[in-house]
Amino acid sequence: MRFNDVVWGALLMLFGSALFVDVQGFPKMPGQHVGPAAMPGALAVGFAVCGAILLWRGLRQRAAAQAAGAAAPPWASAPPWFASPPQVLGFCVLVAVNLLYLLAADRLGFIVVGVIYLMALMRVLRVRWWLALVVAVVMTLLIHGVFYKLLKVPLPWGLLQPISW
Amino acid sequence: MSSAWLQAFGMVFEPYNIVVMLGASLFGLFVGAVPGLTATMATALLVPVTFFMAPIPAVAAMVTATAMAIFSGDIPGCLLRMPGTPASAAYTDEAYSMTRKGLAEVALGAGLVFSCIGGLFGTAVLMLAAPTLAEFALNFSSFEYFWLVLMGLTCAVFISSDRPLKGLVTLFLGLLVACVGLDNPAAFPRFTFGNTEMLGGIGLIPVMIGMFAVSEIIRYVVDTAPQALIIEAKIGNVFKGMWALARKYPLQVLRGSVLGTVVGALPGAGADIAAWMSYAMSKKFSKEPEKFGTGHVEGIVESGAANNSALAGAWIPALVFGIPGDSITAIVIGVLYMKNMNPGPTLFTTHPQNIYAVFLLFIVANLIMLPLGYLCIKVAKRILKVPRDMLMPVILLFCVVGSFAINNTGFDIGVMLIAGVVAYLLEENGFPITPLILGVVLGRMLEENLVSSLIKSDGDPLAFFERPIAATLGVLTILIWLAPLWPGRRRAAVTPPP
Question: Is B392 in CB contact (< 8 Å) with chain A?
């Protein structure tokens, strides 16, 4: 998604203000002028100031466009892929497989989730079924081998625990 | 020749290290040659693997992989009109025009040979400048470091982007990310939302893998452009005619190398900006500027040297001050900290052998680039045909496992994914990513030096200008900040970029 500078500016000002309020609750360091709130507090002001400039600049652009008789720039616009179903599906699958990994890797195990993960992504990129399956299995085992055996990373076994090697 | 140098030789030419360098070279050449995979991504993908190595092989892997990737990024530019890495984008059209004129082997040869020369030049400057600067920096107090970090971040905002305001926003975001956790002057848990994983802060490595690798994969998945066709060019001996080119354009090679090293050493600007600036400069000073863009090798010679020399240049501030010169060294600094090889001037006095080893690694990496690059060009067509629809999913799974491997926690995978989506969204909206990364890397250093300076000076801001070097750095930094407000530039800043 592309947002207009006015939108970004308003969001940043809001964020900066919220941050500024939040850091007021940070404790002071006894006997010192500065504490843990100094840096984030300064950043909060920075966000708000940048946001204000962006907002002002965006509004001026709109005014200039209207003065010239042209249509004002849209508040937000979708990138071209939003209109293209395969790409939208691709993006959704990409998010879905990662959520699956985060939620299910411990229970199902790395190898099971890894194969599903690669299969799903390759299928959505239109790799043929059998090829996707072969590559998914081989690459999952390869990554597992490198990280689990060679680098001793404790990847979960999950369902395959009884036949772990 | 001291014993430290001998030790360094021993570390670099150890069989294990040689094998690592060869492996990293092949990896770098491959990643650089595949469009959509960048040199920075190569470094980010190496981190999980180097995590388990000794410091020198870990650094060796990164130095060789990046040097190779920056060169091999020229190959798809030449044959597909798609830069393999952003650093090759400046002269992609030129190289492609040469290929269409049947000069592919000259374009690739020039890319290879002058990459090597530029890389060696940058290394020579690194070897001369870094130890001298380090000696100088030994006397720096928190005031100098504060200004140095601030100046580095300022450069990153103003150089790495044509939109300083948006660069500033991403810089603040990076600094804010660095604030998360207990690691602050009062050890107060900031922005942890009651989550114990966040007490330790947001890991640098998952953020980098997300921003540089995952965001590229998202971009690939949603890309609607059709795949480019490979030009069927005959490529013979790429070294033919290179000596003549070197004799014809000695000044260009030197200029490209110098500019590349300087741009590389400036924080935030790396090989890609060096190449753009150098290509523009080459055209400006050329005797035949009208030939640029029609398949003329001069610009490739100059900017090819520039992008590789920038790699070594970026290591100067990284090793001496711990301030990354580009996004690649930002990752490297993260790795050095994990290896207890904390960058800074004391590294030069306490462990000079490690520094000398890094110098040697650069020399070796640039020299083996010639034979390996030659082989890579020979098999280029096969690399370019590699099915990216299979490669990208595998890389993504590798990123997931790699992020997990650093701390063995799923939290880091989440951080990586969020960083990837955020980077994609920010770049879509014209916010540059490099300032964000530098903010994350340097946030703690900035805060530490700011707070300890304020405590030392009892809150007096004038103390920041009392020491001569601190004052100079401070005034310079403030001047850079004020530059956009100059009357002549004000209007340019207001006009929106096209």
Answer: yes
